[in-house]
Amino acid sequence: MRHRDVMKYGFDVFNHFIEEYRLATKGNYRKDLILKFIEYQLVIMYPITPHMCEMEWFNTFRPLKENSHLADILSRHSWPIEEMKNIDYGVLDSYDYIEKLKKDIRQKLK
User: Fold this and answer.
1) Each residue of 59-69: pLDDT tens digit?
2) Contact assessment for residue 14 and residue 42, using Cβ atoms and an 8 Å cutoff
């Protein structure tokens, strides 16, 4: 993966999804889901911005996880892997449809 791709997906796209989740839940979001998002984002961004990610891991993220199994330092953390059985493809298809619909509506209004 190139530096540009990591920055695009590791930062911009992740932040886009978390912002959409925050707006959709109107502030009633699940803490565990937000912490999982932050964990994944820090791990993915680590190869490009190791000092910043390590600082955020140690000072901000790790203290939030009580009784955690997490590594003391981010460089010892494993790459994020989600089991395919946990993915709800119906929700993903619905999301894609709504995003396409929003784009179509914006184009029609122009």
Assistant:
1) 887 777 665 66
2) no
Q: Copy the structure tokens of residue 87.
A: 């993915």
Taking the C-alpha atoms of residue 10 and residue 106, their distance in angstroms, rounded to an integer, is 27
| DSSP 8-state assignment for residue 79 | P
Average of per-residue pLDDT values in the chain: 82
Residues 6+ apart with CB under 8 A from 4: none
Q: Would you state the pLDDT for residue 101?
A: 93
The label of the residue with tokens 């999804």 reads 17
* Inter-residue long-range contacts of 47-50, CB under 8 Å, 24+ positions, other chains counted: 47/6, 48/3, 48/6, 48/7, 48/10, 50/74, 50/75
DSSP 86: G
Longest dimension (CA), the chain: 52
What's the whole-number mean pLDDT along residues 62-82?
75
Question: At residue 14, does pLDDT exceed 90?
Answer: no
